Amino acid sequence: MNKQKRILAIHDISCVGRCSLTVALPILSVAGLDTSVLPTAVLSTHPGGFEGFTYRDLTHDIKPITKHWQSLDLKFDALYSGFLGSFEQIDLVADLFNTFRSNDTLILVDPVMADKGVLYSVYSSEMVRGMTKLCSMADIIVPNLTEASFMLNEQYMGENYSQEYIEKMLKKLASLGAKTVVLTGISFEKDKLGAAAYDSKLGKISYAFNKKIDGHFHGTGDIFGSTLLAALLNKFSLEEASQIAVDYTHECIKLTVHAELERRYGVCFERAIPYLIKKLGLIT
Question: Which domains does the chain have, with CATH numbers?
Answer without folding.
Answer: 6-279 (3.40.1190.20)
